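Dear Dr. K.,

Following up on our conversation at the group meeting, I've run the structure prediction for FAD-binding oxidoreductase from Pseudotabrizicola sediminis. I'm pasting the input sequence below exactly as I used it, so you can double-check it against your construct before we proceed with anything downstream. Let me know if the numbering doesn't match what you have in your notebook.
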Amino acid sequence: MMQADVVVIGGAVMGASVAYWLTLMQPGLDVLVVEQDPTFARASTALSVASIRQQFTTAVNVQVSRFGIGFIRDFKARMGLDLGLKEQGYLFLAHSADGATTLNDVAQMQRAHGAATEVWTPAQIKARFPWLEVDDLTAGSFGATGEGWFDNMGLLSGFRAQAKAQGARFVTERVTGLRMAGGQVAGVVLERAGDVACRFAVNAAGTRAAQVCQMAGLSLAVEPRKRTVFVIDAPNARHPDAPLLVDAGFYLRPEQNHWITATVPQDDGPCAADDFEPDLHLFEEVIWEQLYARAPGFDAVKVVRHWVGHYAYNTLDQNAILGPHPDVPNLVLCNGFSGHGLQQAPAVGRGIAEHILTGGWQTIDLSDLSVARMVEGRAFRELAVV
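The predicted structure tokens came back this morning:
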């Protein structure tokens, strides 16, 4: 029978980060990472818009991204890879007096944790980005530093390569079951290799996280949600210094000479794990009219390509679900990121490794994101889900 100290189920960015931190913190620890598709063709990591921000509505998420931006900035020194970080900021727009109040309140919290969020009047938005229409706005919040986008696959590649160099093993396999004994995971069952005995199992299975929990007789409120992303050409809107703009019905950011844009479908709900059929109607029927109203330079627009990615959506509160499961203490969850997992991978991987090795959260207190709140149905809601 094969064995390992820790079996990580899922080898995309979250699983790779956990493996990196475990083998960094405890050299010689036997870590096995199991990934069924090493091309990552349908992984949320590969299909992400690859952005990072400090503008969250919960303090723990700000702290997580504060660590993440520093890690990404220093990635070349750590891993030898330049992630091409473009710190052009996020601009969140408010359309009501209540919305402006919320931006101010949240910005105050973000600044208290080290973020550089500024809240602007519509006139200030217009002065900085004159190509935007602001007459219907009440305020905007802008992250002057610490926000932008980067190379998603570079982050994954760096974590994987360094974890391997530190002794982690990566195998291409499909997990078919968990062997339970005495209320704990005694082994992870692989399709070809069979049973792998372990002391800990980490669920980093992304949109399939609930399936892994079911193998232990547990439920998990995480489901795949489809997002169709459009790459558009707008010859009358060349603004290479633009931020990632978050408006009421869409988001938009520059991508070389083009733009990336997407929206949340009005009938948003779960999809099949293998459903990657694009919702092409969303651009013309939902996004374009709003985009043109916000920026008249988008009068002439052409969709040049598109892709579909899945959010591992936490239906309770759209926040990460982290740490040991109360009913199966050596099954450690790393799930439910609801679209912001890539940017959280550096800090979350470190936190999960610390918890496995020490029995508790260390550098950042991640207890607000505990599995216990899910079991109890006690929502800890993140409102800034893009």
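Two things stood out to me. The CA atoms of residues 84 and 232 lie 21 Å apart. The mean pLDDT is 97.

Best regards,
J.T.
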